């Protein structure tokens, strides 16, 4: 089939590459020309897709990246994998809307359109489908098929990849479900059909709300345990030995990516809009997790104060700008808030992250009129000299390629938010 993947980010690029590898002719469409230029050169900005997988597909023409809307024409199967950010607490579905309008102009009888972007239950039926019908003059279920399949990409996870992660699939009717299921069964080892798109949309929000709430629980426990003089990490280690009824979650400097800071709020917004009720668990988790960077800065200020230093005028080295280890994904990263607060307090903030590339993973301050979240942070390498020169080192993302023995040997004071270090100079969150 001729397959179109709209959006070439952490979700769309792996999907496009996999579809091309199994034999489809794939167009990877994205409105960002910088992304398309890099992909056309065989350069990948997603760790899960090394250049070695990308370049052979470019050479054979099985995969073609494009920012030209005309490249959309002629698709048999299209998947929408565009961002769905929050704007002032409300879902911003403008990227889905613009994608739907673009696809509608090229929609042909017999084609299928699937949405993968995370959103509230009802989006596929109430927003996407009417836009496709209006723009094409065709009828869903009769002339073309529509479905929803929530993305489950975990950037940087070497064990669970697109191919071996079960894929939830749904469609507007039995024929649509068959079309969606047939496509994804070629890409993944197992599909999980559900009865309607709303159940599939809720599945994604349930998965992420579960993680969000439990991370908030251990984050709040970490704060209270510290004040009580209790080692929360030792308690978590002990609890994790229970073979049933407990699932381990670890504290950290906050949550990032799209899944946790944003996705649960879609469900909360939908419940409030449709039912007039507040989703108290989500709202409480949002409050705890969004304030963890503030807590990190407070703990750092206390640690410096004990060493007769103030944040104002101190040289502080942040290790890890990504929201999680071994990835360059800096979407909604708590490191941005930590850097902002420290800069505002008068610190000289430096940062080391071998994975995060300015202009690709975060906003590029070199672009006129655009300021990235780390535009006032000096980017450095975590050399022994840089570690020794810092008044404090804060480990935010515990990438495996950091030299942890060197950090322990050269840093004068470390606030470790990931429990990767130990020693007299190390304080664990």
Q: Report mean pLDDT, rounded to a whole number.
A: 92
The helicity comes to 25-40%
Q: Which range does the strand content fall in?
A: 5-15%
Provide the succession of SSEs: EHEHHEEEEHEHEEHEHHHHHEHEEHEHEE
Question: What features would you describe in this structure?
Answer:
By secondary structure, the protein is of the alpha/beta class. The chain contains 14 helices and 16 strands. An 8-stranded mixed β-sheet has the order 3-2-1-4-7-8-9-10, with helices on both faces. Helix 9 (263-275) packs antiparallel against helix 10.
Give a topology summary.
Blueprint: E1 2-6, H1 12-21, E2 25-29, H2 33-40, H3 51-60, E3 63-66, E4 77-80, E5 86-87, E6 90-91, H4 94-104, E7 112-115, H5 123-136, E8 145-148, E9 167-171, H6 174-185, E10 191-193, H7 197-228, H8 232-239, H9 263-275, H10 280-290, H11 292-306, E11 315-319, H12 334-344, E12 348-352, E13 378-379, H13 384-389, E14 392-395, H14 404-410, E15 414-416, E16 426-428
Parallel strand pairs: 1-2, 1-4, 2-3, 4-7, 7-8, 9-10, 11-12, 11-14, 12-13, 14-15, 15-16
Antiparallel strand pairs: 5-6, 8-9
Helix pairs in contact: 4-5, 7-9, 7-10, 9-10, 11-12
What keyword list fits this structure?
429 residues; alpha/beta; 8-stranded mixed beta sheet; 6-stranded parallel beta sheet; 16 strands; globular
Task: Write a concise synopsis of the structure shown.
The protein has 429 residues and is α/β, with parallel strands linked by helices. The protein has helices at residues 12-21, 33-40, 51-60, 94-104, 123-136, 174-185, 197-228, 232-239, 263-275, 280-290, 292-306, 334-344, 384-389, 404-410; strands spanning 2-6, 25-29, 63-66, 77-80, 86-87, 90-91, 112-115, 145-148, 167-171, 191-193, 315-319, 348-352, 378-379, 392-395, 414-416, 426-428. It has an 8-stranded mixed β-sheet with strand order 3-2-1-4-7-8-9-10, with helices on both faces.
